[in-house]
Design brief:
alpha/beta, FAD/NAD(P)-binding domain, 6-stranded parallel beta sheet, 4-stranded antiparallel beta sheet, 19 helices, globular, GMC_OxRtase_C, flavoprotein, signal, FAD
Length: 642
């Protein structure tokens, strides 16, 4: 019941703040601000609020300001009532939506991307699938950074990051009867913390969830007891970021803001856009001023900072804040008419996301599972019962499921016998210099970007050759016809860009995904699709008369035809944008070092998903919290020494 009271108080606080702020920390105009701040956090999202919470707690005599574009909103779970589980929540907080430039290598498809525009950022609107990458994903960050990162006192490999994953979350075991019913497995040693974000399993699974679960075992995938402890290959149970009693969404706006208020030194400025950081006497003269624009009246003003600025505006907005500040690729800034402060070609130039096509089928034999997602639409009585069940204490029923708890993760060596030839291609292009031709044109001639990309590819070659490091993900919650097995490419080789709109610097950035520009990505896609088609040959799916819809045996048997299918049917973004201010040495095109300080800029750090050099094989929410926890720890330790 302690859990329940905490959740109710938090939700009430946010609900009231959406109308009349209940905390004195909420500011809406410049006249409410202090004359100066020790720390300014640009962006009140998942990572930014984590940093602000920890800094304000560690230094009660230092003032912390978070500047957030959005407002405080109630954030329902991804499938809370009154939705029908199939459609999105109608009362979800506002979000930015982007359509990327058409992608020529992918049949001129545009990527659709959504990121949160509220206190809590994307943790208020995401799918609540709360997994972590494998240990090898994070070890690859250090390998890509080279000798300098390997020697650094600050480690971003698995051992360096795992304690902060644990610190960020409170995991609650499911009720014994529910665990037995669904055969949930877990290992509490992967958690062990009492963090502000809740993680738990649903009290419900769709009646046919076991169909695909059994089929995966029939193609040789083994169930894993726990996939959050660094070892991830296999069939995984994945908790959701939700409260164990209420099944309400657990997000940064609650755990790292509402639940820690009132805190006298923690201010939150809402409905304001950070235009840029301003170095009055060059980038060595920091910390910089923070130039801010009121969204209410357009008023511009500066915030004075005595300690440092932490940019945490997310993978799509952090690059534009830096670019507006004159920090970025010289050619891009020149084209936009922005005076160059610091030439860092990596700003916005290492853009990555997960993408991939589906394998789909229908069933020709009847099956009598109940309930299924379609029953939420066709059976009014059942939907009314599920709505009432969600309101109980503890909550139960379909509305506690969020986006699902099941996924498979399979390595490239277990996906295709041709994996060694794919690895050889990657190594050859990296060592020969041929990989440079696949970089975005506006940074292709920069030797640091070429060196960094080659280093990343070599790290990916090591990662993809590891039989314990997943290359493919397929999440699922049901097998209801039409059946779909999504092919998530977890480690893409292609690199896109996030660029300032040169016609309107304050407009939303221009996204160029450039998916498929490195042709080896298609080798990976083809291997993954062909592997997933094995599902249709399993006794379980044959028993239900599964008939393939796409890509079909004729297409799958021909490389060119299957490549065309991938181009035409892929989802270009599974909403995991990252890596646009990469943590790499400056001589390898990096934007920040291991302490997250912007290379060459005094008093300026970046802490969000843009700092990852390589996208890990995971949904990014849990990693965003861990990065925030580690970033805060780095800053705290440094300032304690001062």
């Amino acid at each position: 019941m302690i859990f329940l009271s905490t959740a109710v108080l938090s939700l009430a606080a946010l609900a009231s703040a959406a109308g009349v702020p209940s905390h004195s920390s909420v500011k809406r105009q410049v006249t409410q601000l202090r004359s100066k701040y020790d720390f300014v956090i640009v962006g009140g999202g998942t990572t930014g609020l984590t940093v602000a919470d920890r800094l304000s707690a560690a230094f009660p005599k230092k003032n912390v300001l978070v500047i957030e574009y959005g407002d405080v909103h109630f954030a329902p779970g991804v499938f809370d009532p009154p939705t029908d589980w199939i459609t999105a929540a109608p009362d979800a907080p506002p979000a930015w939506t982007f359509l990327s430039l058409p992608n020529p290598e992918m049949a001129n498809t545009s990527a659709f991307v959504k990121v949160g525009q509220a206190v809590g950022g994307s943790s208020t609107v995401n799918g609540m699938f709360f997994d972590r990458g494998s240990r090898f994903d994070y070890d690859a960050w250090t390998e890509a950074g080279g000798k300098a990162f390997a020697k650094s006192k600050v480690k971003w490999d698995w051992q360096g990051l795992f304690p902060f994953f644990k610190k960020s979350v409170t995991f609650t075991k499911p009720d014994a009867a529910i665990a037995q019913r669904y055969k949930y497995t877990w290992d509490v040693s992967a958690y062990g913390g009492l963090g502000p974000i809740h993680s738990s399993f649903s009290s419900f699974q769709w009646a046919d969830q076991t169909v695909l679960g059994k089929a995966w075992t029939e193609i040789g995938i083994k169930p894993a007891k726990e996939c959050a402890g660094g070892n991830k290959e296999g069939i995984c149970w994945v908790p959701a970021s939700q409260h164990p009693v209420t099944a309400k969404r657990s997000h940064a706006g609650l755990g790292h803001y509402a639940d820690v208020q009132p805190r006298a030194n923690y201010d939150l400025l809402l409905k304001h856009q950070v235009v840029r950081v301003v170095y009055r006497n060059g980038p060595k003269s920091g910390p910089p001023l923070v130039e801010v624009k009121s969204l209410a009246d357009g008023h511009l003003f500066n915030v004075t900072v005595t300690g440092e600025v932490v940019v945490s505006a997310g993978a799509l907005h952090t690059p534009t804040v830096l670019q507006r500040s004159g920090i970025g690729p010289a050619s891009v800034l020149s084209a936009a008419g922005i005076p160059l402060v610091l030439d860092l070609p990596g700003v916005g130039s290492n853009f990555q996301d997960h993408s991939g096509p589906p394998v789909t089928w229908t069933y020709t034999k009847p099956y009598t599972f109940f309930p299924l997602p379609s029953d939420m639409v066709t059976n009014a009585t059942f939907k009314a019962e599920t709505t009432a069940a969600f309101a109980e204490t503890p909550a139960r029923g379909p509305y506690t499921l969020a986006g699902g708890n099941s996924a498979i993760y399979v390595s490239l060596p277990h996906t295709t016998p041709s994996y060694q030839s794919i690895i050889a291609k990657i190594r050859q292009m990296a060592t020969s210099g041929a990989s440079t031709a696949f970089l975005p044109p506006d940074i292709r001639s920069d030797p640091t970007m070429a060196a960094g990309y080659a280093s990343q590819l070599l790290a990916l070659a090591t990662l993809l050759s590891n039989p314990a490091a997943p290359s493919l993900e397929t999440p699922w919650a049901t097998a209801e016809s039409p059946g779909t097995a999504w092919s998530f490419l977890l480690h893409p080789l292609s690199r896109g860009t996030v660029r300032l709109d040169s016609a309107d610097h304050l407009a939303q950035p221009i996204l160029d995904y450039r998916a498929g520009t490195n042709p080896v990505d298609f080798d990976l896609h083809l291997a993954h699709v062909r592997y997933l088609r094995k599902l249709l040959e399993t006794p379980t799916l044959k028993g239900y008369g599964a008939v393939e819809v796409a890509p079909g045996s004729e297409v799958a048997g021909d490389d060119d035809a299957l490549r065309a299918y991938v181009k035409q049917s892929s989802t270009l973004s599974f909403m995991h944008p990252c890596c646009t201010a990469a943590m790499m040495p400056r001589e390898k095109g990096g934007v920040v070092g291991t302490e997250l300080k912007v290379h060459g800029a005094e008093g300026l750090r970046v802490a969000d998903m843009s700092v990852m050099p390589l996208v890990p094989g995971t949904h990014l929410s849990a990693t965003a919290y861990a990065v925030g926890e580690k970033a805060a720890d780095i800053i705290i330790q440094e300032w304690k020494k001062r």
